[in-house]
Amino acid sequence: MIGAVGAGVLLAGGAMLMVARRRRVVLVSPGDEESTD
User: Fold this and answer.
1) Contacts for 36 with CB less than 8 Å, ≥ 6 apart
2) What number of CA atoms fall less than 13 Å from residue 26's CA on the CB side?
3) 27: pLDDT strictly greater than 90
4) Which domain of life does the UniProt lineage start with (predicted)?
């Protein structure tokens, strides 16, 4: 159970980070995702 919860938290955190990075990149400079990544 603890392992499943930890995995869920990691997945949720990773998804939030990806969304935040994408939004930040889009806000800063649209179409610059390739060079940033």
Assistant:
1) 25
2) 6
3) no
4) Bacteria
